[in-house]
Structure formats: structure tokens, C-alpha cells
């Protein structure tokens, strides 16, 4: 198989005639530009403009994978995937250059995958590759510190052979290609090292493990191989500017450049679109009529999204100097750090949430009730009725009377809860929960607070948030991508929120390695029932997305896995 893994050369077309720069307004601010650190939709959107991976999804498809920096997609038929499903060989394109003009090598590809697995902290995107390639859920050893042996395991799992990067898995992993489409962004080893990052050596990786957001070598700079090059990131003004990469291996795109600006307020976004200051804007469901009324604007609504909307409960809140706890005790002025570790509290909150009111008030009826963590399209074929907990004030009262031996009911609580600033739908979700609980007992108080996206993520990572409303976009279109980060005890949210469900952990792992689609589906349906019973988080609605763009912006392709759009294909007429 590996003898056929020859490097291919890509022909580069001449730069096309430049068209105007595209101005794009998004809702959430950017958290990081490091493709091995970022884990939010807004950051990944801008990273996709500057970096390529080994493979990607084709157009709007959720199952057709096409080569990018790899010259072919491994299959059983072409011999680059082994018969046991555990070895993938990726021959690489030749002549691909980073934005600084240096040539991409197979060593850069291996380094990028190793950097993601070894230097990113627990619970982040590292786990997307770490588990499938090493069989380990964390780089930590029994003492809680990075295990030096994990380097050897990862080094053996990824090799460079005959012009190909070869991955050897300890056992089959059903969504492996989909994972690589979401995680295999290639960075320059020499560039990262020159800016204080890991140099790729075994002896130095532990010193670079789990850097803080701002200490990452690629936090505010980039050197990818993608269609756009970063020219400026003004964090104070929440703007990024990109120029077209005229040396792009796929041939340069049509747009001369790209400006991305974060505008949380929908009225401000609409006014900027109407004045011609922006060409494309993200649109929330409640603001659809206002954007549809802008002359010369096309609004694409009801776009399917691969995301899970939920109210998240922190079962192990960090108590130190934490304003998200109020008084920090059950005295009516706050909550204790383990408030949501009580199952009656979580179930009571779920029973007090009026999802029909949320759909009416937050989405003008355009959303539907969530099927647990699984967005439409991730579970194939006909499905039984979802096992969601119904809205019932009477059941909420019964459960919350029982919580903490009656002290929750007798004393009440003050719960500071967060939502992304400028996100009207999640604000209404928080208010819907607040209203439902206050009707059950006037002593139950919820203080809904808007937070900038970057601060919300920082507070979550520090385990300080008590409860918050958030929308989690799947990393790839497979049910594993919904439950691993959300529910698994070592997942991104599971770890940050202190979730511990051993039975769920075992089911998640079993389903990921199951190659029979029917058996996989049955496992996920059982997991859905368990989640509905335990309520580690309250899944609310399945919503659709909307984009408003001026009529001269064309060749727009929407994919559920790239809801912000694929800007390489976009043209803007003068």
C-alpha cells in the first residue's frame, strides 16, 4: 500500500483579476487564531480562511470527503486504507507553500498533528485526535501531570513514509476521515518555534503543554497555506483583515481580501448592511424580518445547522473569589459550588423550562424541540419519538422540594447565569428558565448576564461559570462529535463542568469503534435516553441558520458543517 504513496505536484493558476474585498459581520468575537487551540465557531471560521487540512468535505455534503493537502483520500479501493480499518496513508501534494513563502513538508504535517495532541490542554480539540490515534483520553499520567510516554505513543502512531503521512490507529474509529477534515490544519513547525512555540522535540513538549490562550505562539498571528493571509487583527475593535493569497496552490480566489467584524447588536448589523458598509451578515431568527426588508439584500433562511443548543450546568464550580456563585451557599443569595451535582436540581430545572414558549418568543416558531444532543442528520434513518423531559411546573416543584433535603425550596437561591453577549435567542432561553423557576417558587431567582464570547469561554475553562446558555457546533457530522465533547467526563464541556457518568463514557467509546451502522445507532438512542434521565445539561431547541448578503455577493455555498460559508468560492461583483 505505502509503495504507491508518491508526492504529487499541483499546478497553480495565475492570479485572477482582483474583485473588491468582502466585508462580513459576525455575531461573536474571535477567541484565538491558533488552529490547534481554538474551539469556538467564530475562531474556527476565520482559521478556515487561512489554513488547509489534509482533507475536507465537498461543498454542502456531510459524507463526501475530498483531498486538500493530501493528494488522495484513503479508501479500501485505492489501497491507502488498510483492510482492518486501522492504517491511513495520505500522500501529499508537492509545491504547497506557507504564507511566508516556505514550502510545506510532510514533517510539518506530522508536527501539526503532534502539536494538537500533545500541547493542547485537556478537554480541548486535542481529544478529537488523541483518542483515535493513541487510545488515550488525556496526556496526563496518574500523577495528573503530562505523561512522558505519550510522546512515544503519538510518535509511533504518525509516521512519514515514502512521501506520505501514515496514521496507525489502535482500533477502528468510524468517523476518522471526518475528524481529520475538522482538525488537520497544517502549521509551519519553524514558524511556530520562531515565535516561542514548541519546536517539535521530545525533550521540550511538556514545557509547552497547555499554554494559556494568549501565550500560544499562533494566538494572534498565522502562517497557513490557505486562500487568505492575515494582515491585521484589531482585538479592541473586534476586526480582522485578510488579503488574498496569490500563491495559493488551488489557484487564487476571486476576492481581493476579506474583512471580518464582530457586531453583536442585530440592529447595528442591519444598519451597516443597509449603508453598504458590510456585504454579509449573520442573522438571528428574531431579526429575520428586519434584514429581509433591506433593499438589494438576499436572506437565506432555514439553513440546517449541526449544533446543539443547551443550558449548561456546572456540577463542580470553582469556589475561589467567584461572582458566579453569589454568596456561595444555600441562603437565598447564591448557590453552593456543587449545586448542580444534585440530580433533583437538574431535573427540576428541566421540568421548569417551557420549550414551547422559548420557540415562540425566541424564534417566532421557526425552531423545533431538540432531540437531546443529536442534531438532524447525525442519526440516519427513521427514529423513534425523542425522550425529552416535558415542561411541567408541578414536576419541577416536586423535584425541587426534594433537592438538598428541602433546603432549596425553603431558602431559595440566586443563580447568576450567562449567555453570549448580543445573542438574543440565548438571552431569551435564559429568561425563559428564569420565568419558569420564579413561577414555581418566588424565592428562585436567576440573574441573566451577557458575556463576550471570549470571556465566556475563559470563564468556562476556569470552571467558574455556574450555568450558561450556549450553542455547541459539532466539529464533524457524526453523533460522536455531539456526545464526546458534551457528555464524556474527559470531553471539553464534560471536564469543565465536572460531569461524571461512567455508563455514558462506556457507551460513547463503544459506539465510536462500532463499524455496524445499526448497532451504532442503537447505542446512541440508548445514550439519548440516559441523558434525558440524568440531565447533565438541558437541551433546548434545534434551530436553523440565516445569512443576509447583498445581491452582488455570489457563488455562496452553505454547508451545515461550515455555517458561515466557504469564502474561497465567493465572488463579489462591482
Produce a short descriptive summary.
With about 575 residues, the protein is of the alpha+beta class. About 30% of the residues lie in helices and about 20% in strands.
Question: What do these coordinates show?
Answer:
It is globular and about 70 Å long. The protein is α+β, with helices and mostly antiparallel strands and about 575 residues long. A seven-stranded mixed β-sheet has the order 9-10-11-2-12-21-13, sandwiched between helices. The longest helix has 18 residues, at about 515-535. Helix content is about 30%, strand content about 20%. It contains 18 helices and 23 strands. The chain has two domains: about 1-5 and about 50-215, Dipeptide-binding Protein, domain 1 (Alpha-Beta Complex); about 305-540, Roll (Dipeptide-binding Protein, domain 3). About 55% of the residues are buried.
Note the main attributes of this structure:
seven-stranded mixed beta sheet, Dipeptide-binding Protein, domain 1, alpha+beta, 18 helices, disordered N terminus, globular, 574 residues
Amino acid at each position: 500500500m505505502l509503495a504507491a504513496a508518491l508526492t504529487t505536484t499541483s499546478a497553480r493558476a495565475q492570479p485572477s483579476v482582483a474583485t473588491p474585498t468582502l466585508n462580513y459581520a459576525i455575531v461573536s468575537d474571535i477567541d484565538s487564531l491558533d488552529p490547534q487551540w481554538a474551539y469556538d465557531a467564530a475562531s474556527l471560521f476565520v482559521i478556515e480562511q487561512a489554513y488547509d487540512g489534509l482533507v475536507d468535505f465537498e461543498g454542502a455534503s456531510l459524507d463526501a470527503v475530498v483531498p486538500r493537502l493530501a493528494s488522495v483520500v484513503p479508501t479500501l479501493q485505492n489501497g491507502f486504507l488498510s483492510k482492518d480499518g486501522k492504517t491511513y496513508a495520505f500522500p501529499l501534494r508537492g509545491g504547497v507553500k506557507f504564507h511566508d513563502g516556505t514550502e510545506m513538508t510532510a514533517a510539518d504535517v506530522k508536527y501539526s498533528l503532534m502539536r494538537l495532541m500533545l500541547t493542547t490542554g485537556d478537554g480541548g480539540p486535542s481529544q478529537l485526535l488523541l483518542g483515535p490515534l493513541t487510545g488515550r483520553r488525556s496526556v496526563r499520567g496518574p500523577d495528573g501531570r503530562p505523561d512522558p510516554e505519550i510522546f512515544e505513543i503519538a510518535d509511533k502512531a504518525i509516521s512519514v513514509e515514502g512521501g506520505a503521512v501514515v496514521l496507525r490507529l489502535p482500533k477502528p474509529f468510524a468517523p476518522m476521515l471526518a475528524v481529520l477534515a475538522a482538525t488537520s490544519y497544517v502549521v509551519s513547525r519553524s514558524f511556530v518555534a520562531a515565535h516561542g512555540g514548541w519546536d517539535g522535540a521530545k525533550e521540550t513538549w511538556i514545557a509547552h503543554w497547555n499554554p494559556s490562550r494568549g501565550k500560544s505562539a499562533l494566538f494572534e498571528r498565522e502562517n497557513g497555506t490557505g486562500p487568505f493571509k492575515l494582515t491585521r487583527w484589531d482585538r479592541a475593535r473586534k476586526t480582522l483583515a485578510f488579503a488574498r493569497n496569490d500563491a495559493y496552490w488551488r489557484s487564487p480566489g476571486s476576492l481581493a481580501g476579506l474583512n471580518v467584524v464582530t457586531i453583536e447588536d442585530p440592529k447595528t448589523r442591519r444598519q451597516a448592511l443597509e449603508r453598504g458598509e458590510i456585504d454579509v451578515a449573520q442573522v438571528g431568527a428574531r431579526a429575520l424580518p428586519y434584514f429581509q426588508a433591506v433593499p438589494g439584500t438576499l436572506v437565506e433562511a432555514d439553513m440546517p445547522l449541526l449544533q446543539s443548543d443547551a443550558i449548561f450546568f456546572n456540577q463542580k464550580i470553582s469556589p475561589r473569589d467567584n461572582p458566579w456563585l453569589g454568596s456561595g451557599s444555600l441562603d437565598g443569595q447564591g448557590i453552593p459550588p456543587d449545586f448542580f451535582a444534585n440530580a433533583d436540581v437538574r431535573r427540576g430545572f428541566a421540568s421548569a423550562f417551557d420549550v414551547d414558549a422559548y420557540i415562540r418568543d425566541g424564534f417566532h416558531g421557526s425552531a423545533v424541540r431538540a432531540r437531546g444532543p443529536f442534531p438532524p442528520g447525525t442519526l440516519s434513518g427513521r427514529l423513534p419519538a425523542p425522550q425529552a423531559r416535558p415542561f411541567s411546573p408541578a414536576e419541577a416543584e416536586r423535584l425541587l422540594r426534594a433537592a438538598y433535603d428541602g433546603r432549596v425550596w425553603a431558602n431559595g437561591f440566586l443563580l447568576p447565569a450567562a449567555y453570549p453577549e448580543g445573542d438574543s435567542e440565548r438571552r431569551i432561553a435564559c429568561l425563559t428558565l428564569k420565568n419558569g423557576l420564579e413561577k414555581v417558587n418566588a424565592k428562585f431567582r436567576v440573574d441573566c448576564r451577557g458575556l463576550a464570547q471570549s470571556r465566556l469561554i475563559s470563564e468556562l475553562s476556569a470552571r467558574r461559570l455556574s450555568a450558561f446558555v450556549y450553542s455547541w457546533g459539532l466539529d464533524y457530522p457524526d453523533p460522536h462529535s455531539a456526545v464526546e465533547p458534551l457528555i464524556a467526563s474527559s470531553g471539553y464541556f464534560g471536564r469543565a463542568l465536572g460531569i461524571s457518568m461512567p455508563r455514558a463514557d462506556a457507551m460513547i467509546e463503544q459506539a465510536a469503534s462500532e463499524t455496524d451502522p445499526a448497532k451504532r445507532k442503537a447505542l446512541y438512542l440508548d445514550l439519548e435516553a440516559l441523558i434525558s434521565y440524568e440531565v447533565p445539561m438541558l437541551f433546548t431547541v434545534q434551530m436553523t441558520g440565516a445569512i443576509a448578503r447583498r445581491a452582488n455577493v455570489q457563488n455562496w455555498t452553505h454547508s451545515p458543517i461550515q455555517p458561515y460559508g466557504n469564502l474561497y468560492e465567493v465572488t463579489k461583483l462591482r
